[in-house]
Design a protein that fits this description.
alpha/beta; 6-stranded mixed sheet; 4-stranded antiparallel sheet; 9 helices
Length: about 290
């Protein structure tokens, strides 16, 4: 079954200056592109860091008379992994766009450790530590994988120590042998993994992952598990995952939230939520019926 993507309204289109997988290069930034040579023999594991709490309070979004979602509230503490699921058109991607600053909310607030991020532009939200990924691969296409990572490291004012922190991911994703290849020439799965490495390279405090497993083969999807584990244990991140792969959601998310028709239909542990008839009717039943 081919699932349709939630279309972004015109005002949600990414503007020139989007930086890789969810990054923005503010005007005047000059990004370095060289980066150190990578040697897998020098892998080191980063030290776990204290994290930051994200609070979404009563968020609403309307486009004219169209109510995308209404009164959505949740919080993500350091180390939390929250899954957000729902049928196509439920507003999942729009929710990420509002949290990360790509779209302003109609009502409600987005707080990062009590700091009000509501309505702030994408580059400011990214600088504060809320970093998103996109459904499609999104890198500097004509730059090498190494140059892509160097630009992300530069965006975060990092250096060689940051390269060493993300080195385990580079190795885990089999990118080490491809660092000097043009990113748009890499196989799709490696392009997707490169985008996730870029997300970690800007030192996120909260990660918003929009269908990280989309387009990946089954064996490649386990790399998403490794990425989330690294983000939680090594960076101290809270993670929000929008995903259609229910196996992945069950593996990674101790708690899930179901969006349907602009409202929160259910939230709680996957085993409990995914067994509810209203959830099956609204989402899982529709998908399974279409795939049968």
């Amino acid at each position: 079954m081919t699932r349709s993507r939630e279309p972004l309204p015109r005002e949600a289109a990414r503007t020139e200056g989007s930086f890789g997988e969810g990054f923005v290069m503010p005007p005047g930034d000059v990004l370095g592109v060289m980066g150190p040579r990578f040697d897998r023999r020098e892998l080191v594991v980063g030290t776990a860091k204290s994290g930051t709490r994200l609070e979404v309070a009563g968020i609403c979004k309307r486009f004219g008379g169209l109510h995308v979602f209404n009164d959505v509230s949740f919080s993500i503490s350091p180390g939390d992994v929250l899954g957000v699921i729902g049928p196509n058109g439920a507003g999942k991607t729009t929710l990420i766009n509002v949290i990360c600053g790509m779209l302003p909310p109609t009502a409600g607030r987005v707080l990062l450790d009590g700091r009000d991020m509501t309505g702030k532009p994408l580059h400011a939200v990214s600088r504060a530590g809320i970093v998103r990924s996109f459904q499609q691969t999104n890198t500097f296409r004509t730059a090498t994988a190494r140059e892509n990572i160097s630009r992300a490291v530069r965006f975060s004012n990092g250096g060689e120590s940051l390269w060493q922190t993300i080195a385990p991911l580079i190795d885990e994703f089999d990118l080490a042998a491809h660092l000097d290849e043009q990113s748009d020439k890499l196989p799709y799965g490696l392009q997707k993994m490169l985008g996730l490495v870029l997300a970690c390279a800007v030192r996120p405090k909260v990660l918003l992952l929009d269908e990280p497993a989309a387009g990946l083969e089954r064996r490649e999807r386990l790399r998403v598990d490794a990425f989330v584990r690294h983000a939680v244990t090594e960076l101290g991140c809270g993670v929000l995952i929008v995903e259609h792969d229910m196996e992945l959601v069950r593996r990674l998310c101790p708690k899930i939230l179901v969006l349907d028709s602009g409202r929160v239909l259910a939230e709680g542990a996957p085993a409990e939520v995914l067994s509810r008839k209203d959830v099956i009717d609204a989402y899982l039943g529709t998908m399974e019926g279409a795939e049968a």
